[in-house]
């Protein structure tokens, strides 16, 4: 399992949320996403951090390469290509 952290700035939070929920959900599932969390910066609500659990890095890269996904990202109002980081869990503790 791979954790993917994506940073992106959007034009409108409501537009992003609607597209992320409706158009993005089936695309993410089709490509191996198991969960998604969207956070926004308190100083800039249009600066988002998305935290995904994905079956593998390769599956996420396939997701990004999908033309349907690229169209969905454009429809969501992303103002620039996302910045992506891939992480692998090494330790998990309860609070």
Can you put this structure into words, describing what you see?
The chain has 95 residues and is of the alpha+beta class. It has one domain (2-87): Alpha-Beta Plaits (2-Layer Sandwich). Helices cover 38% and strands 31% of the residues. The chain has a 4-stranded antiparallel sheet with strand order 2-3-1-4. It is globular, with a radius of gyration of 13 Å. The chain starts with a strand and ends in an 8-residue tail after the last strand. The model has no long low-confidence stretch (mean pLDDT 93).
Which helices and strands occur, and which strands form pairs?
Layout: E1 2-9, H1 13-30, E2 33-40, E3 47-54, H2 57-65, H3 67-75, E4 83-87
Antiparallel strand pairs: 1-3, 1-4, 2-3
Estimate percent helicity: 25-40%
User: Strand arrangement, largest sheet?
Assistant: 2-3-1-4
Give the overall pLDDT as a whole number.
93
Number of helices in the DSSP assignment: 3
Largest pleated sheet: 4 strands, antiparallel
The proportion of strand residues reads 25-35%
Top CATH class = Alpha Beta
Task: Could you tell me the CATH topology label.
Answer: Alpha-Beta Plaits
Low-confidence stretches: none
């Amino acid at each position: 399992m791979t954790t993917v952290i994506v940073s992106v700035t959007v034009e409108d939070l409501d537009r992003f949320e609607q597209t992320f929920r409706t158009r993005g959900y089936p695309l993410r599932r089709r490509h191996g996403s198991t969960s998604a969390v969207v956070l926004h910066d308190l100083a800039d609500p249009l600066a988002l951090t998305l935290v995904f659990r994905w079956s593998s890095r390769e599956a996420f890269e396939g997701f990004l390469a999908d033309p349907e996904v690229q169209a969905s990202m454009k429809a969501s109002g992303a103002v620039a290509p996302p910045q992506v980081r891939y992480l692998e869990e090494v330790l998990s503790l309860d609070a």
